[in-house]
Specification:
Blueprint lengths: L2 H29 L8 H10 L7 H26 L4 H23 L12 H37 L20
């Protein structure tokens, strides 16, 4: 499988698991009647487009899942290849960047205040931040494992033990290589 296809497949697999964990964390807050941020990006896009969105839970969850998978693809194709540190740290950095954009741009623009403070209590803000972070950390760790597993499978199948994770030849077999 080509490198881009492998990365998209790993991003979608990791993203699907990560968004499931995120949704479960948000739904668990609903079970204890703790209000958290819901649908801020959708509300922003609807407002900017000047249209109305269907008012159904199924549509909202579908949008949430698609947004999560989109962020997973951005991670797999753009962010992770440029990163030279541990996957956990990249997950935390990505989580912080998106949370800051949501807290200081999206939510204030739709009238919910900084980090949702106009409509949420501190417990709701913190729960949302934790559920949000779970998504990005799970995404980064799972993506790393999925790419590693694909790379190992590729090496075993082709007998090429000196390829890097992107499938490119390396000089690792040469003891004099830098």
């Amino acid at each position: 499988m080509q490198t881009i296809q492998r990365r998209v497949a790993a991003a979608l697999g990791a993203g699907a698991i990560a968004i499931t964990l995120n949704v479960l964390a948000l739904w668990s807050a609903d079970l204890i009647h703790l209000r958290t941020a819901h649908g801020g990006l959708l509300k922003l896009l609807v407002r900017l487009a000047g249209v109305s969105a269907p008012q159904s839970g199924a549509f909202n969850i579908a949008f949430h899942v698609m947004a999560g998978l989109g962020m997973a693809i951005v991670y797999g194709l753009l962010l992770e290849p440029l990163w030279r540190g541990p996957p956990l740290l990249l997950g935390l950095v990505y989580a912080a960047a998106v949370w800051i954009a949501n807290a200081f741009v999206v939510l204030p623009f739709i009238g919910e205040g900084i980090a949702g403070s106009a409509t949420l209590g501190i417990a709701g803000i913190l729960w949302f931040a934790a559920a949000h972070t779970v998504f990005f950390v799970a995404l980064s760790l799972l993506f790393d494992k999925m790419i590693e597993a694909e790379w190992n499978h590729h090496r075993q199948r082709t007998g090429r033990g000196s390829d890097n994770r992107e499938g490119q030849p390396t000089n690792s077999g040469n003891p004099t290589a830098p």
